[in-house]
Each structure stands twice: as C-alpha cells, then as structure tokens.
C-alpha cells in the first residue's frame, strides 16, 4: 500500500491566511482561487485538509473568536455592569482597529455580503452572535439582581443594544475609522447605559 504524499504546507499558517482573507474580503468575496493563491496550496490540498470553503470559514471563525475575541468572556467577569459594557465595547474597538488586522469584524464583514447561497454561513454567524448576546444578558440579569442595574432595566435589551453598537463600530472600522473615533462613539453610546458612572 502506498502512502499519500506528505503535506507540503503548514496547515496552521494556511488557516491564518484564510482567516485574514475572509476578514478582509468577506465570505462570498473570497474565492477559492483567492484562498489557494493566498495560502500557497492547491485546490486538492485545500479540500483534503479543510473540507470545503464553508468548513474552512467555520474553522477561521473559530480561530478568530479564540485569538481576537477572548476579551469578551473576560469582560463578563468585571465587577459592575457598566465596566462590563465598557470592556466589551472597547475590546471590540481594539480588535476592529488593530493595525496588523484587517479592519472591522470577521463576522460582520462576512455576513454583510452574503447572498441566499451562503445562508448556512449567515446562520452560523447569527448563532454565534446569539451565544454572546445571551451571555451578556445573563450577566446583566445578575447585575440587576445585585442592584447594580435599575430594577426596571431589561437585560436582553441592554445586551442587544451593546452588540448593536459593536456591530456599528465594526462597520465604521472596516470603512477606516480610527480607534479614537470609535472610542468617542462608545462614550456617546454609554451615556444611554443605565447604572453608575
């Protein structure tokens, strides 16, 4: 029995390149040729290692969340709802405007250009966003129980509000807005957030 040819590329480096391409060009804007050229591999190597474009995107999205979005889960541990909100928004702004990264958010950039043909990708992105939104709402529910948020606060609406602001700043960042500009937007948005300053 003959063995297959050994892999002639670093799959980890190739995945990072794919992540950056998807982040910069979106899911549908990134062609298989873009991927194979950028990753320096052949189509059979792409399919043999990563499955298909959709699976490669899911792997890239998972890496993105691990490497660029870990701040989110740390922010939930902050002692007050207001600090949680600020850390979440500043964390998004920092990741979205880091000079060595493509601008904006991988999920937003990928979803904005998706047609019906990429419905599964949109669904994946929506599901991931809902996980984050539910975690944030649970944290705000706790803050409400502890008296850190007013009794009439709606934790679900506050979580949705923050993620809407984060998505808006992602669009701004992908259009070239600087970090200090986004921080100023965050300051304005936080004026509507309940709780102590």
From TrEMBL:
Transmembrane segments: none annotated. SUPFAM superfamilies: Homeodomain-like, Tetracyclin repressor-like, C-terminal domain. The keyword Cytoplasm does not apply. Coiled coil: none annotated. One of its GO terms (molecular function) is DNA binding. It comes from the Bacteria. Pfam families: TetR_C_13, TetR_N. Residues 31-50 bind DNA. InterPro entries: Homeodomain-like_sf, HTH_TetR, Tet_transcr_reg_TetR-rel_C_sf, TetR_C. Residues 8-68 form the HTH tetR-type domain. The keyword rRNA-binding does not apply. Keywords: DNA-binding, Transcription, Transcription regulation. This is TetR family transcriptional regulator.
